[in-house]
Design brief:
By secondary structure, the protein is mainly α. Helices cover about 80% and strands about 0% of the residues. It has 17 helices and 2 strands. The relative contact order is 0.15.
């Protein structure tokens, strides 16, 4: 049994050695299998190490991305069926799963935490769109790819931010409420912001985008909420299966988008990764310190930092597909998703080791002044 435990680590080392030898001997195109083994083995090693599951899941995504870059045809079409047609149905399943984890009480949180929700929503829909717009125009990326950066910034937060708030022991109740409210507002806010900020890069049809978000997000989430209210606990197998289905759906979606935009990604990949990381880090930084400046307590400020810095990249991918631009506008969301999981998990783990005390009302009033 002890030998079995060392197999993943051994595979990591052997795959690294194989990659280096192949690169040294000029067989760079033959490194595909070794790269896949490396990421999958590393995911298993991380999972067994006790680190947050977000790290291992991210390396599984990297394995899928690598496979789609080396073997794009596998992820584009099967038997004449265009695999891009799977993206929206998979997103709807993921959003349904998101709805089943919520309840209508989450929306009541607006009344219980009005300041946190108001500040959180303001930061959510001002900081990331503004940064995305700035980066899109200074990066020098092609117009449609740049529009994808803005699209990520204009999207609401997703379940990943809730997970990070939980790991970091931040204000989880506020996180769930903010995600619920942002999701509910997204059909109106996201198309409005895209029309204002990205219409010069790509034509934005407000009504079409509104209907797409309602179809991809609102209807499945509402169905999930109703399921949670009337059938919660009756189908325990569903509670166990949905997280796995959601994770598999995300992996498949990212692999398909990567394969569709392979040529563009290979030509501008490092630039796009750099831009996405700046976007992500700026969201955390400005989200946290903006809240502190407005007098929000530390735990809630950490929560809002995650809500701002971690976007629903799946929704952004779905919108790009509905616009017929998944191979261009869909690239930024596809890159943003895995990277935000790495940065978010790292930040959550660091904050978990630095717990904060609840601040009294007088302290908060003094800081606000």
């Amino acid at each position: 049994m002890k030998i079995i435990r060392y197999i993943p680590k051994t595979l990591v080392l052997l795959s690294i050695l194989t990659i280096l030898v192949l690169l040294w001997t000029g067989y760079s195109m033959e490194t595909g299998p070794a790269v896949l083994v490396f990421f999958l083995s590393l995911a298993l090693v991380i999972r067994r190490s006790g680190l947050p599951s977000g790290f291992s899941f991210t390396f599984i995504i990297f394995a899928a991305v690598s496979a789609s870059l080396y073997y794009p045809s596998v992820f584009l079409e099967i038997g004449g069926f265009d695999l891009k047609a799977l993206i929206v149905p998979l997103l709807m399943i993921i959003m349904f799963g998101m709805g089943t984890t919520m309840s209508f009480d989450d929306f009541v949180g607006v009344l219980k935490m009005p300041k946190g929700v108001l500040v959180g929503m303001t930061c959510q829909f001002t900081i990331m769109p503004t940064i995305g717009y700035t980066l899109a125009y200074v990066s020098g990326l092609p117009a449609e790819i740049a529009a994808g950066i803005i699209l990520v910034g204009c999207s609401p937060s997703g379940l990943a931010s809730n997970v990070m708030s939980y790991i970091s022991k931040a204000n989880l109740a506020l996180s769930i409420t903010l995600t619920a409210v942002a999701t509910l507002l997204s059909p109106l806010v996201t198309p409005t912001l895209m029309k204002l900020l990205a219409d010069q890069l790509v034509p934005i049809d407000f009504v079409s985008m509104f209907l797409s978000i309602v179809k991809i997000v609102i209807l499945p989430v509402v169905a999930g909420l109703l399921f949670h209210k009337f059938a919660h606990g009756r189908f325990q197998w569903l509670d166990k299966v949905m997280p796995m289905v959601s994770m598999a759906g995300i992996v498949i979606i990212i692999a398909i988008i990567t394969a569709a935009g392979r040529d563009s990604l290979l030509s501008i990949g490092f630039t796009l990764i750099g831009v996405v990381l700046v976007h992500n880090f700026a969201g955390y930084l400005l989200g946290y310190w903006g809240c502190r400046w407005l007098g929000v307590d530390r735990r809630s400020s950490r929560t809002i930092a995650f809500e701002v810095g971690m976007q629903n990249s799946g929704l952004a991918s779905g919108i790009a597909l509905e616009m017929g631009r998944v191979a261009t506008m869909g690239l930024a969301p596809a890159v943003f998703g895995p990277l935000m999981n790495i940065t978010g998990s790292s930040l959550a783990t660091w904050w978990r080791g630095k717990p904060v005390e609840e601040e009294s009302g007088k302290e908060m009033e003094a800081k606000a002044l």
